[in-house]
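Review form for a predicted model. The reviewer records the input and the model, then writes brief findings.
Reviewer: anonymous (R2)
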Amino acid sequence: MADRVVLYDTTLRDGAQTEGVSFSIEDKLEILQRLDDFAIDFVEGGWPSSNPKDDEFFERAKELELKNSKLVAFGSTRRAKNSADRDEGLASLIAAGTEWVCIFGKSWDLHVVKALQVSLEDNLAIVEDSVRYLCDNGKRVIFDAEHFFDGYQDNPEYAVQVLEAAKNGGAEWLVLCDTNGGSMPYDVGKATEAVRNSFDIPIGVHCHNDSDLAVACSQAGVRMGASMVQGTVNGIGERCGNANLCSIIPNLILKMGVNTAVKDLSKLRSLSTFVGDISNIFPHPGMPYVGDRAFAHKGGVHVSAMSRDQRTYEHIDPQLVGNRRRILISEMAGTSNILEKVRELGIDSNREDTKPILDRIKALESQGFQFDGAEASFELLVRRFRENKRPPFELQGFRLFIDSQMGSKLTSEASVKVMDLDGNLEHTAADGDGPVNALDMALRKALTRFFPKLNSVRLTDYKVRVIDEKAGTAAKVRVLIRSTDGKSTWTTVGVSENIIEASLMALVDSMEYILMKDGENGDR
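Model under review:
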């Protein structure tokens, strides 16, 4: 196994081939700078001449002063009918202005005959000519052997001959690709070892995730001698995606003891979140290391053991990768969950006085409430129990009016009455795009007379879940509302057979929560 592994990111090229992803030039420049800050060795920026966006990206990237990363232009070997010096693709790679280029060529005889429709000998010439032409024009070349592991399974002698052609042309890296993503880790390891023993230049691996094994296959390649791993942030990419660098990097460093250029793993989660925001494909909550659930604990037995030693149910300290531990509250929680969560909120507590809180939570969850996704409502519940606080306002009542006019959409109007702690009453109304929006607008309008801070609060997400579908239109619904004041976000929950009432519960909790945080609650 190599002492040091080079990290090669292809988020901006292979990741951009994800369905639904379209990076702007500004997006690509920002991601490049974040990857450079994280100390990724190589960043594949795109395919020059494939689209105007990538051409402009490489032109603008020349203005950046990268500290850690080498920008790589990606492309293909020459077309079969062209000579290297007349191939537009190779010319565009030279024009991109990067020191390093990466080109892929066919290494599976099936693809040579069926896709390229050339002889096996001609393909070897295509590979060698293309690499040599780039090297003769001052480029340092990484050669991606496309479909290598499938080709090695069918015709190992020819797959290796393709690598020899790339090396003879002057390639400095030979990267073995599992392009279809169907290889098993032991096959990747076996083939990588064989190649490593046959060549005196470094080997890399590039794996796709169509069998959900891209990370395992990449690590198998490293174990058997590969010293470069290619992948993407969050594993985005064509079809089922690429090898996920957010898993590979901590595995290499923390589990396998491999040295990489990355020295500050605590930036990993923020990098994952950043790319998720820009790509509009937010990381799955259950993603290892960086996901929201990666260090979330719900079972009471787990939390009880962790209160004694965190190693009992966590394989690493979450802070190593910039994540955090989360103690979840639900009907499955034990006293330990409540104790840890209450301490997390900065509230003094002991095992005896958490029992009433636990009983109340279990009773509410049996009615359909869910507190592991609504921590603001949980904190309100705890503080009502522990600190004997009065709510800063009381909802006296509300009315909703929904009008329909021929040829027009439905219109909603809500009126609400609220009273503050001094007995002052505010009665106001507001229109909205729907009944919940009208209630939100009216409630906020009434409360801002007493609490101007609420002018900055807005809803960012609204979810409705039917709890018992078999009850039909009489079923209970759970409403989760996420709110923000521009500085922080919080989630509240409401449950009722009436969606309006459930929504109002969550809305009231949302307003009360931020006022409580600002010290607006009163003592009884």
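Findings: The chain has a mean pLDDT of 89.
Further findings: The two ends are 67 Å apart (CA to CA).
Recommendation: see findings above.
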